[in-house]
Amino acid sequence: MAGLSVVVVAPDNEQRAVLQAMVDGTSVAKVVHSCGSFPMGASDAVIRRVQSANPDIVLLDIPQDNPMQALRGVELIHQGMPDTAIIVVGTLSQPQVIVNSMRAGAREFLERPTTTADLLEAFVRLSANQRSARRDETRATIFTVLNAKGGSGATTVAVNLALALEAAHGNVALVDIAQLGHAALHLNLKPAFTIADAVRNLHRLDRSLLESFMTRHSGGLQLLAGNLSPNPVEPSTAEFARLFDLLGGAYRYVVVDASSRLDATARLVSNLSRTVLMVATADLAGIWSAPRIQEHLGDAGSKDKFQLILNRFRKNPSFRENDVEAASGLKILWKIPNQYFVVSTAIDRGVPVVGQSHGELARAFSGLAHKLTEDDPEVKRAAWSLFKSVERA
Fold first, then answer.
1. pTM over 0.85
2. How far apart are CA 199 and CA 287, in angstroms?
3. Is 220 helix (H, G, I), strand (E, B) or coil?
4. For residue range 248-271, what is the model confidence (pLDDT) as tens digits?
5. What is the bridge-based pairing of β-strands 141-147 and 222-224?
6. Residues 44, 46, 52, CA angle at the centre, nearest 5°?
7. In this structure, is the dihedral angle defined by the CA atoms of residues 6, 38, 72 and 110, taken in order, positive or negative?
8. Contact 343, 349 (CB under 8 A)
9. Paired sense of beta strands 222-224 and 172-176, if any
10. Is residue 220 predicted with pLDDT exceeding 60?
11. Strand, helix or coil at 330?
């Protein structure tokens, strides 16, 4: 997502300047051209200038007093540049304008007055959707793990899932964004650096420096450790977006331990993720919380990416799985059996269950890793190649 190019189209000079400043303020995009008028036809000079700039995104302001000319501009830009994302800014008091702008070709509608955070979230969504549509295999697939309620076991799931992915595929990063990180304790690691160090050095961060901030586990997994004490100054969402853009280019899979974080950073990372694994136990509080967290973190059309992981699972005839799905509105992706003593002992020893045995729990986490990656093109090709080689033998 680094270096998104944006053309700003707005007839009002003051609004145009505000939008340009906000685009640059996201730190993930830059304005490459601005226009003070809307195109009037397919051969209009405005269209030619926008095409010459070849932007990733056109940010177009719809004046409240004259929306029709702006909507015609959206249509013409979309016709001339169908692969360029168009984001429009307007007022929610004109619902027909919203509908017509989307019909004309806009991908996003942002309410005026827009903020830098609003723009950043829109850029993240568009970037994630474009990568998904292209099935860009050079970018990491991100899985975010979070609690439906505190203490449900998100860190345990994140750590063991990351180790299982590393064992199966290699080149996996575990990123701890909890406001007080515990992933290093689960792995018995003493990190020299944390995510805060990486964020502080974003201005010079490249893949080599990023790797120096990671702590390597004996199994090959690389950990970007969480804060060792509560951070009084949280990084901005723009800084987290830049960090995850670098992580996406360096690893095959990135597992994010969000624990119980529900702020703008959690929303950003959820938008970047292929799948958000919401860890819940089969109790009323967790099931009640799950759909509310999904609604808080998700964006339009993203509900399918949120999946339930039932942790400490044991069959209960009075609490059936279809009851859980109906109450939460989310599909159950996987179940982790209830072996609390084994898990708590593994945490105390700093030896996760995936790394110490081939028992039921280890198989459950390995199965989850397989479930999440079974449709990946590279995994399918590898399985097919292995099948062919066995056939030939």
1. no
2. 34
3. coil
4. 889 999 999 999 999 888 988 998
5. unpaired
6. 110
7. positive
8. no
9. parallel
10. yes
11. coil
Q: Is the pLDDT at 175 greater than 90, yes or no?
A: yes
Q: Which amino acid, one-letter code, is at 390?
A: V
Contact 1, 245 (CB under 8 A): yes
And the tokens for 295? Answer: 């609604």
Closest CA to 259 of 382, 148, 103: 148
CA dist 294 and 302 (Å) reads: 9
Q: How far apart are CA 164 and CA 220, in angstroms?
A: 11
Residues 6+ apart with CB under 8 A from 344: none
Tell me how crowded residue 141 is: count the other CB atoms within 10 A of its CB. 20
Position with higher pLDDT, 371 vs 304: 371
> What separation in angstroms does the CA of 72 have from each of 56, 180, 290, 355?
20, 50, 42, 60
Distance CA 239, CA 130 (A): 21
**Cα separation, 285 vs 187, whole angstroms:** 29
Q: Strand, helix or coil at 60?
A: strand
Q: Which two tokens stand for residue 126?
A: 């568009």
If one compares 204 and 162, the residue with the highest pLDDT of the two is: 162
Q: Where are the alpha helices (DSSP H) in 277-376?
A: 284-297, 321-328, 340-349, 353-356, 360-373
Burial category of 226 from C-beta neighbours within 10 Å (exposed 0-12, middle 13-18, buried 19 and up): buried
